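Moderator note: this is an archived Q&A kept for reference. The question asked for a predicted structure of one protein chain; the sequence and the answer are reproduced below.
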Amino acid sequence: MEASSKENTHFFSNNTVLPVDRSSFKSESSASKEKQSCCGGIKIFLGALSFVYFAKALSGSYLKSTITQIERRFDIPSSLVGVIDGSFEIGNLLIIILVSYFGAKLHRPRIIGAGCLIMSAGTFLIAMPQFFMGRYRYERFPSTINSTVSLSPCLQDKSQTPLSALEKTQAKINAGCEKEAGSSMWIYVLLGNLLRGIGETPIQPLGIAYIDDYAVEENAALYIGCVQTMAIIGPIFGFLLGSLCAKLYVDIGFVDLDSVTISPKDVQWVGAWWLGYLIAGLISILAGIPFWFLPRHLPRPEGRKDSSTSSEHSKFITEDSKDQGTSSWQQAKLAEMAKGNSLDIIPAVILSLACLLFLLFCLADFLPSLKNLFGNPVYILYLCASIIQFNSLIGMVTYKPKYIEQQYGQTSSKTNFVIGLINIPAVAFGIFSGGLIMKRFGVGVVGAAKLSLGSSFFGYLLLLSLFAMGCGNSEVAGLTVSYHGAEPVSDHEQALFSECNSGCSCSTNDWDPICGEDGVTYVSPCLAGCRASNGTGKDTVFFNCSCVGTSESSQSSSAVVGPCQKGNECPKMFLYFLVISVITSYTLSVGGTPGYILLLRCIKPHLKSFALGIYTLAIRVLAGIPAPVYFGVAIDTTCLKWGSKRCGGRGACRLYDSSALRYVYLGLTLVLGTVSIFFSVAVLWVLRKKSSPQDETLSANGERGTCGTKSRKDNFVNSDQLIQSTYWPEKETRL
């Protein structure tokens, strides 16, 4: 009986459980549907954000590829081009604090979409001067531009030129001056790049935080890795687009290309720089469209339903709850007051007092955190090393196209093609290799410091070898060689005149190079002493050039349009330069990931966001903005021949001293890199000192740190945790 009663009891208990099983089955099915919708939504957002990263990386790299084109088109020096390049960082810094604070409280996808529209508007604004400043005018002797008036290059007296032709030419110049005197169209390029920086601001902090909030925790690292991969692919296409546009003449579609007398190898050549900006702006618009249709919130994964933040972030908040209990209570009270303000009408005085209290609270929390952060010697030393190294790298990358063009005589198209197809993939592979080495060998904090230092040391050591891989100066009469084959005097303008052209009425401001049959380039047909010409356009040939060749053959000497090519050793040197440049780019990039992990592991968990914000701010203000400017100023000092604007004043540089340019460009890069290595050595020394067996933590005050090296197992984290820490959700939001 007892056994049967037990069986009955068990039977009825099973019956009572059945409804629960059905409800749980329904909940599981609804949970699976919710999970599917969550995954679908986050994948759509991931695809849209990846496309945006591609668009912003493409437009940014395209700007780098058009540096020399912009310089020639607007007749401005390299220093001013550096200011234009740094305006992007200025625009980014103008609103990053506002976007960081208020962006997370608003509709993040739509803010990103609005940023894409602003970014595209800035990109279109950069291209606008092409449509308002008239056709591009380069310096050429009138007979080479299909002129109906036959003129002698060497104007021995003004009577050779018909008065009407001179009057018409002077009238055109005066009309151009009236239009040009009141316009500085390069300002639109600067404002457009500034606008690009403003539009790009919300993409990274809000996009990465959105993924981290709504992605399954184990997939977040993979998703962020996909986004960053697109950020590497973008510059490849940006430089390839720059290569394509540099082949096309600047006024393509507006002028007859048969009338163009210069080639892409000429220093006055300007490609269709504006065309790429129109393409990049269109891509930015398309990239921003999906964000206007994405929801403000997505269903949270099962593991995050009870938390408003990621599990890693929640862990840090829990760890610091004891120390910050009062701060949390004050924040809650302020939030309560703000909520009440939205419901009730409160006098402006009370609202102002609340804002003042909030600012005082933020300041009271900010200063101790800043003091704590700057009291960390490893962080300060690594920050100094990074600032100096980024000065070196940003300056080098900005003017690398100019250096290749001027040093090795390559066209802008070929230069951009080489950088996009060879250098950038080497950088991407180097970053990947650095992370792979850390994962494969279980590298700890001290090991990461050694790897970062080693990559910088060997990278700059390889850079040292580039000093021996340069080309000599082009032989330009009166500038690099005299008319008699000897070295010229220091005053280049006086050296442009010689006995052979003393009977000609020549101007030293002209730059219309011709190549003599003796292999020497002459600044203009007039300064070459040419007295006759035949043909038009690119086929023009000058005869009876008194300065070309020896005195015995001067009466029959000839020259053709365009400068002479550099020496025969230049193509071989350029090949060597490419090989060393690729190896150097890879070597320097290997230390990127270990250095970033070193930064993250040597600060307290609750200060990570703040430390990364200070790091990003310092890099942009102290490296991204000034480096292109002073690199440009230094490069301008190596100019041998400046162009002249139509209405007077100095234009863009026409000829550089190749040897001086090599020493200034590589020397400045190497000096900055060497100084950064000394700071990296100091970082390693402090780490080794603090990681002795007697010290359990890095902090001198006995506070909890993360740089202790008690065991490799304690220091090393798996690859997923590495990536998640590297892309901390608020790394650019809390400044």
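Archived answer notes: The longest strand covers residues 650-656.
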